[in-house]
């Protein structure tokens, strides 16, 4: 991909050096302060050299390109505008702005003006942000406009993507800092990508970095402190008027909050009404408003102490306290105090408390992230224009409208007749009993042909998309209201079902009320993983391990019974695994050589002995020409002692025929040499053993439902596919991002899907597919389209392509309802991170879905 071009560039020169920047340092005693004003870095002194098109600035500019570069200062046709122009005969040109001091990511923006002349075959603009200590740079891709000056204002935070990095930098490969400053940027690069072989021309006439009004200040991070039974105290400044004061706190067990002797209440681990929000999955801070309890020009004392003095010796706590003051010039200054060593133990002889960075899972039940500042914006500092969320709930009238719409789409309780083993879901081949059409079909328990059209990622997932989770939690009074509105929107878009991945169980149950069928997902039970010679593990459990088999039976039985899957008529079936890295997958994975867990090793020895008729001489004759000279084969038990990496490979591929004892003819390119051939065959045997046992368990516990295979990652070898041929459905994850400015499958992708059907004889569910566009201002590493309108148009083409060219496909699942901004940093969603539909995309989805359903035979 072209994105890799910029990621690999190292000799990048400076564009606009020596910017003056104003970054608030941490104040003494753990108080972090920042002015709540816009601060352009280049606005202070005449000596400041932000990029501007002057001869002096021009001499400091040295852009970079992979080919011959011509760089000059130019004037417009009327002589009124001056700009710098970089021109190269290769397909990329880059300008870098290096910062003279480190810049906080949380509240900094790049503001620049660029132009790409008409006639340039421009593809996209790249922004690459370099972070101090990061293992790799963050990048964003933008649609390019040619022939006119374009002004862009891009948040550094958006280049990183998501919000989790604010609390836990490791989520974005960022180095955590213990100084209270959060991630710091060192430079930003702006580049132009054009069609390969074309000329690249990029003109600049402005390039600034600014800091915006921010609720984060320098992004102070709460640290873990363990509060003793006497509690801890903190004193706020004794001069000036304090306003917009707040406290957020999470405690492992209940603690009381006291301000100036007045008890404000208690806080614990999940400070949320679980009856209204039953799926809350992370610790949530309780937020206290402090203004009415603070005194002007007097010391203000805060005390936090455990409620149960007879309980544990100490209580782990994270907290943050913020307030606003006004300086002598009338500027508002925001201050943040976090839990750290500046808090004192409440006793007759006060002492500083010990603190440590919070790195997640400390205590273990807290999880990777917690819902607290700086991840969560305090309401006292929230306006409709601030990040990371708009905390405005629905008005009474808005909520009434939402509920009325949802109620109008509700189905009667008996809309789905009850089902069971005697009335199963099933599949039907073309022109078979119950299916006169030329396509494969799902058949409902009422014997009605059915085509599944669904979407996924429905629910609140703070680890994957914190912004969306917080916005929805603020907007709706309960999870029931959120799900009813969301599922009603999905129904109106023309979908008839919902699916995994990561859709919540409450969404599946609620979908039933809207006539939405669903597939579930249940991966394998935990167990000893298979491993290779070097000890590297593979996420497939050892299928020969008896303890894992028992655990798998228990897991499936308990899940089926606890969730009522067997009797739920809306449930079609279940996917049993996701994107195993089997041989032939598009990520280049392989199971070959993963047989060194104890039970798998024993199974390999037994399998090898059977293959060679228990004759070690036959094994030596077959293997020895390809083994290192020092290798010996004293017995079959010694075969695993040879490192598979040391085996020689044939220079030409060997074609293995079915009559030579293999399950089926195999692709010649995948088999090189006898040893590698045997190792591959055992990998297939391992996969088949795993697949058949998983199927056996599901068949026993879930009769009448369809059991779908591992959701294959775009491809697999014939033998790996054949291992799943007894399943009802083959699940296939495939994305149409191989073509620039197109969102349909390539001929090879279509043929791979047809081939999977031919090998297994089973219908296909496209269990994950999606399209992105660059105009969302998310990182978008794999987007191939510019706009949401294009995205919608390509979705319609994709849906029609699948219908016209893939008659074995019985289901289509669009990835996804919401973006996964904090994990993938990509814009797959139908709605943005504030829950608003991308209107052009959504309108095309609705039209295409309804047209498809009307035309299905």
Task: Give an overview of the whole structure.
By secondary structure, the chain is α+β, with helices and mostly antiparallel strands. Among the domains are: 3-25 and 38-211, Sandwich (Jelly Rolls); 223-379, Sandwich (Jelly Rolls), CATH 2.60.120.260. The chain is built from 15 helices and 35 strands. It has an eight-stranded parallel β-barrel with strand order 26-27-28-31-32-33-34-35. Strands 1, 12, 14, 17, 19, 20 and 22 form a seven-stranded antiparallel beta sheet that branches. Strands 2, 3, 4, 6, 9 and 11 form a six-stranded antiparallel beta sheet that branches. A hairpin with a 6-residue loop joins β7 and β8. The two termini are 39 Å apart.
The name of the CATH topology of the domain at 3-25 and 38-211 is Jelly Rolls
Over all CA atoms, what is the radius of gyration? 31 Å
**Through-space gap between termini:** 39 Å
Shape: globular
Q: What's the CATH class of the domain at 3-25 and 38-211, please?
A: Mainly Beta
The tally of helices reads 15
The CATH superfamily of the domain at 3-25 and 38-211 is Galactose-binding domain-like
Provide the helix percentage: 10-25%
Q: What's the pLDDT, averaged over the residues? A: 85
Number of strands: 35
Low-confidence stretches: 1-28, 36-53, 653-670
* CATH architecture group name of the domain at 3-25 and 38-211: Sandwich
Features:
single chain; 857 residues; alpha+beta; Jelly Rolls; 8-stranded parallel beta barrel; 7-stranded antiparallel β-sheet; 35 strands; 25% strand; disordered N terminus
């Amino acid at each position: 991909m072209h994105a890799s071009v910029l990621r690999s560039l190292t000799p990048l020169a400076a564009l606009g050096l020596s910017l003056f920047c104003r970054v608030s340092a941490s104040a003494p005693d753990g108080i972090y302060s920042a002015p709540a004003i816009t601060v352009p870095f280049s606005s202070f002194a005449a000596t400041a050299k932000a990029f501007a098109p002057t001869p002096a600035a021009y001499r400091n500019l040295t852009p970079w390109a992979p080919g011959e570069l011509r760089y000059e200062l130019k004037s417009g046709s009327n002589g009124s505008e001056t700009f710098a122009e970089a021109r190269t005969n290769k397909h990329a040109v880059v300008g870098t702005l290096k910062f003279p001091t480190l810049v906080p990511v949380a509240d900094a923006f790049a503001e620049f003006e660029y132009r790409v002349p008409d006639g340039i075959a421009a593809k996209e603009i790249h922004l690459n942000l370099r972070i101090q200590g990061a293992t790799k740079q963050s990048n964003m891709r933008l649609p390019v406009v040619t022939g006119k000056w374009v002004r862009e204002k891009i948040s550094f935070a958006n280049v990183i993507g998501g919000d989790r990095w604010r609390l836990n930098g490791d989520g974005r490969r960022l180095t955590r800092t213990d100084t209270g400053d959060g991630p710091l940027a060192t430079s930003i690069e702006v580049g132009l990508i054009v069609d390969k072989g074309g000329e690249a021309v990029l003109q600049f006439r402005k390039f600034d970095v600014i800091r915006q009004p921010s609720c984060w200040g320098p992004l102070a991070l709460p640290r873990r402190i363990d509060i003793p039974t006497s509690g801890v105290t903190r004193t706020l400044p004794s001069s000036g008027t304090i306003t917009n004061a707040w406290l957020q706190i999470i405690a492992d067990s209940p603690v009381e909050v006291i301000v100036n002797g007045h008890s404000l209440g208690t806080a614990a681990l999940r400070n949320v009404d679980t009856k209204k929000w039953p799926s809350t999955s992370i610790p949530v801070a309780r937020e206290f408003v402090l203004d009415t309890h603070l005194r002007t020009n007097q010391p203000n004392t805060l005390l936090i102490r455990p409620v149960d003095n007879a309980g544990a010796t100490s209580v782990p706590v994270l907290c943050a306290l913020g307030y606003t003051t006004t300086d002598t010039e009338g500027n508002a200054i925001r201050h943040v105090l976090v839990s750290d060593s500046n808090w004192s133990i409440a006793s007759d002889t006060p002492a500083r408390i010990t603190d440590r960075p919070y790195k997640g899972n400390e205590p273990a039940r807290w999880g990777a992230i917690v819902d607290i500042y700086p991840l969560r914006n305090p309401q006292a500092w929230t306006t409709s224009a601030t990040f990371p969320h708009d905390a405005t709930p629905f008005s009474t009238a808005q909520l009434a409208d939402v509920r009325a719409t949802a109620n109008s789409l509700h189905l009667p309780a008996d809309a789905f007749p009850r089902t069971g083993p005697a009335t199963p879901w099933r599949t039907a081949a073309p022109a078979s009993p119950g299916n006169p059409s030329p396509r494969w079909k799902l058949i409902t328990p009422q014997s009605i042909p059915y085509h599944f059209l669904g979407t996924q990622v429905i629910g609140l997932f703070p680890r994957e998309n914190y912004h969306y989770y917080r916005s929805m939690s603020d907007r709706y009074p309960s999870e029931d209201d959120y799900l009813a509105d969301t599922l009603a929107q999905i129904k109106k878009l023309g979908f008839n079902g919902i699916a995994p991945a990561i859709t919540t169980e409450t969404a599946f149950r609620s979908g039933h009320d809207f006539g939405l069928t669903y597939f579930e997902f249940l991966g394998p039970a935990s167990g000893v993983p298979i491993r290779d010679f070097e000890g590297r593990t593979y996420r497939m459990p050892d299928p020969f391990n008896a303890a894992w088999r028992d655990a798998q039976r228990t897991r499936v039985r308990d899940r089926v019974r606890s969730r009522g899957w067997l009797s739920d008529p809306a449930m079609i079936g279940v996917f049993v695994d996701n994107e195993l890295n089997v041989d032939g997958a598009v990520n280049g994975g392989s199971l070959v050589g993963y047989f060194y867990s104890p039970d798998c090793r024993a199974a390999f020895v037994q399998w090898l002995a059977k293959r060679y008729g228990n004759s070690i001489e036959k094994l030596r004759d077959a293997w020895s020409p390809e083994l290192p000279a020092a290798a010996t084969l004293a017995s079959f038990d010694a075969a695993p002692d040879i490192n598979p990496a040391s085996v020689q490979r044939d220079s030409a591929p060997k074609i293995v025929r079915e009559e030579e004892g293999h399950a089926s003819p195999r692709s010649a390119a995948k088999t090189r040499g006898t040893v590698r051939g045997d190792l591959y065959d055992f990998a297939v045997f391992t996969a088949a053993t795993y697949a058949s046992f998983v199927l056996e368990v599901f068949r026993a516990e879930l009769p009448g439902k369809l059991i779908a295979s591992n959701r294959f990652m775009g491809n697999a070898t014939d033998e790996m596919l054949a291992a799943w041929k007894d399943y009802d459905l083959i699940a296939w994850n495939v994305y149409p991002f191989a073509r620039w400015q197109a969102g349909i499958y390539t001929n090879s992708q279509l043929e791979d899907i047809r081939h999977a059907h031919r090998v297994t004889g089973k219908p296909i569910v496209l269990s994950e597919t999606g399209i992105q566009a660059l105009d969302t201002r998310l990182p978008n590493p794999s987007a191939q389209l510019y706009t949401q309108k294009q995205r919608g148009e390509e979705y319609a083409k994709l849906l029609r392509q699948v219908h016209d060219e893939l008659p074995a496909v019985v289901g289509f699942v669009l990835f996804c309802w919401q973006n996964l901004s904090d994990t993938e940093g990509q814009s797959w969603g139908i709605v943005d991170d504030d829950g608003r539909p991308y209107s052009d995309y959504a309108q095309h989805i609705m039209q295409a879905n309804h047209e498809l359903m009307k035309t299905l035979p």
